[in-house]
Task: inverse folding
C-alpha cells in the first residue's frame, strides 16, 4: 500500500482493486474532467464524492463483501458510479444487458445469486426497467415494504433500488437510498474497500445467450485491472490527456475496458447511453476525442452514411 499517513481514506493499494484505480486517478487530477455523456459531465472529484455516497447507501442497505449486485442501468455516469460504489464495499457487480427481456432478467437474477439490483427510470423512452423487472417478478406490485422484499423465484434477492425521482412498489426510492447513505460514516466504506483482495471476484459479465441461456463470466479485480493497465499503458499508449470515446454499452467488456483505460491514466471517457450516429460525430469533434473505440463495422457504416459525415 501507499499513503502519507495511516488515515484509511488516504491509503491506496499499489496493484489495485478496482475502487483504488479510481481513487488514484482522483489523487492525480481531482479537478479534471472524468466522464462526459450527453446528459452531463463530471470531474474526478465529483465522481468520487458521488461514488462514496452510493457506497454508503449500499452499506446502509446491508450490502457487504461478496454480495452480488445487479446493475441494470443505461450507459452513463450513474452506471459507472454504481460500478465503483459496489467495488468500494467489496461487492460483485453483475452487469445486466439493458436489452434483456423479462425472462432473461429473471434468469440472470436467480443464476447470479443477486442480492440487489440497482436501476433507474432515465431510459423509460427506450426501455422501462421498472416495468421489465415487474414483469420478471410479478409479485413486486403487491410488496408493501421494499425492505422486506422476498421473491420466490429469486430467493437471494432482497433489495431493488430505483434511482431518480420515480417510485414504484417493491423498490427502494432515491430518497430512502440517500437517507441510508446519510446514516453510514464514510470510514466504513474505506474499511470495506481496504478489505478487498485482488483475487476477489470484481464483476460478472454474461454472454449474449443467442441460442441458450446466458452464462456468467467471473472476473477478479486482478484480471480486470491488470488487463486494463496493460491495454491502456502498453497497447494503446494512453497519455494523461487522453479523451477516449466509445458508444459501446457499458455492460459489454469492450466498452468497460475502454472506460477503465481512461480512468487508469486519469484521462477522460466520453460515451452515450444509446448509439446515435449524429451524436457520435458531434461528440468526436466537439469533445476532441483522441481515441475512438468502436470495434464493430455497423457503427462505422451508420456514421459514414449520416449526412453530417462530410461536414
Result:
Amino acid at each position: 500500500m501507499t499513503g502519507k499517513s495511516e488515515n484509511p481514506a488516504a491509503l491506496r493499494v499499489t496493484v489495485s482493486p478496482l475502487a483504488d484505480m479510481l481513487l488514484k486517478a482522483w489523487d492525480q487530477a481531482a479537478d479534471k474532467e472524468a466522464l462526459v455523456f450527453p446528459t452531463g459531465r463530471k470531474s474526478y472529484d465529483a465522481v468520487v464524492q458521488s461514488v462514496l455516497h452510493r457506497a454508503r447507501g449500499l452499506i446502509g442497505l446491508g450490502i457487504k463483501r461478496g454480495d452480488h449486485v445487479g446493475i441494470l442501468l443505461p450507459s452513463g455516469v450513474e452506471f459507472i458510479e454504481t460500478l465503483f460504489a459496489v467495488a468500494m464495499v467489496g461487492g460483485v457487480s453483475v452487469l445486466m444487458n439493458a436489452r434483456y427481456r423479462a425472462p432473461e432478467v429473471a434468469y440472470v437474477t436467480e443464476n447470479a445469486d443477486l442480492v440487489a439490483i440497482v436501476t433507474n427510470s432515465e431510459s423509460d423512452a427506450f426501455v422501462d426497467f421498472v416495468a421489465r423487472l415487474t414483469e420478471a417478478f410479478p409479485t413486486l406490485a403487491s410488496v408493501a415494504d421494499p425492505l422486506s422484499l422476498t421473491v420466490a423465484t429469486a430467493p437471494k434477492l432482497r433489495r431493488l433500488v430505483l434511482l431518480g425521482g420515480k417510485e414504484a412498489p417493491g423498490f427502494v426510492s432515491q430518497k430512502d437510498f440517500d437517507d441510508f447513505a446519510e446514516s453510514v460514516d464514510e470510514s466504513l466504506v474505506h474499511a470495506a474497500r481496504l478489505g478487498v483482495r485482488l483475487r476477489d471476484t470484481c464483476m460478472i459479465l454474461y454472454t449474449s445467450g443467442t441460442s441458450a441461456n446466458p452464462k456468467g463470466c467471473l472476473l477478479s479485480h486482478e484480471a480486470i485491472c491488470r488487463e486494463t493497465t496493460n491495454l491502456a499503458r502498453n497497447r494503446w499508449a494512453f497519455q494523461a490527456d487522453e479523451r477516449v470515446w466509445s458508444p459501446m454499452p457499458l455492460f459489454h467488456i469492450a466498452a468497460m475496458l475502454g472506460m477503465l483505460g481512461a480512468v487508469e491514466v486519469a484521462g477522460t471517457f466520453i460515451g452515450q447511453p444509446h448509439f446515435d450516429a449524429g451524436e457520435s460525430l458531434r461528440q468526436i469533434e466537439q469533445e476532441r476525442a483522441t481515441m475512438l473505440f468502436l470495434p464493430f463495422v455497423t457503427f462505422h457504416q451508420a456514421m459514414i452514411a449520416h449526412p453530417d459525415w462530410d461536414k
About this structure: The chain has a mean pLDDT of 93. Residues 8-310 form a domain with the Rossmann fold fold (CATH 3.40.50.12780). The first helix runs from residue 18 to 29.
